[in-house]
Amino acid sequence: MSTVPTDNAAAWDRYAAAYQAAARWPTDVVHYAPDVPNEASVRLLGDVKGRRVLDLGCGGGQGAIACAKQGATVIAVDASAEQLAIARRLAEQEGVKVELRHGDLADLAFVQSDSIDLALSTSALEYVEDIGRVFRQCHRVLKVGAPLVFSTVHPAWRVLDGRSYFDRAPIDVTQDGVELTEYPHTFADLILGLARTNFRVETILEPEPDTGGPRSPWWREPHRQVPRTIIVKARKEGH
Asked: Per the confidence metrics, is the pTM higher than 0.70?
């Protein structure tokens, strides 16, 4: 089963320009999601200088570029050709080198086993139905003890839209006239999925909204009561 359906890849091709114009992500620091603290505050990645970093679902490449600016060797993967085209232009503008790969987030045959120092995925796994396959591939390519850090939609957030917490049926979300498909994952889906893949969970963050600065176009007042984003750091154990 593909972890990013063709329709989602095509939808992101149509939505890429509008999304990037609205998000306006900077390239100096990794951002995990709209309206929550970034890497400068949460400090989950550590010093990436000289490390091999794999960015899954890189979008416009801002996080990958931020890591490259800090001295990392970065491989960035995305299912959307349009998002990668934006990332390529942005990397050229910023004067850094990022290896960009077009494809499924779990199709990592081009990455050697036990060769990656850090795997990163920000706001991408909500578009992945089979997250276990992504976790397995991350485990294969990471060095023993190396971290996987990801952010995704908090499992409790869906309840605000009147859905059952346990309803895993795909959700059609329309953004700027483009329909995307999201896949709800419960807390157990995420944490047990990591455990089954031989990851040890180290940190779980449920960040409160940033207190300062303008809100993103995706801001909703319930963000103040229920976390919109969950951020997880886990480490590879064994082979």
From this structure: yes
Number of helices and strands (H, E) in the chain? 6, 9
Kindly give, in sequence order, each residue whose CB lies less than 8 Å from that of residue 52, ignoring residues fewer than 6 positions away.
Answer: 72, 73, 74, 75, 115, 116, 117, 118
Domain interval for residue 70 = 6-236
In angstroms, the CA 230 to CA 158 distance is 13
Instruction: Using alpha carbons, select from 55, 8, 4 the residue that is nearest to residue 27.
Output: 55
Q: Looking at the domain assignment, is residue 150 inside a domain? A: yes
Beta bridge partners of 149: 120, 233
Terminal C-alpha separation, the chain: 24
Cα 227 versus chain centre, distance: 17
pLDDT digits (tens, 9 = 90+) for 127-138: 999 999 999 999
Q: Is residue 1 part of a domain?
A: no
Structural element, H or E, at residue 136: helix 131-141
How many domains, in total, are found in the chain? 1
CATH of the domain at 92: 3.40.50.150
CA distance 163 to 99: 39
Nearest alpha carbon to residue 66 among 15, 118, 115, 17: 118
What percent of the chain shows pLDDT beyond 90?
87
The predicted-structure confidence for 25-42, as pLDDT tens digits, reads as follows 999 999 999 999 999 999
Q: What angle do CA 115, 117, 122 make, to 5 degrees?
A: 115
DSSP character for 80? -
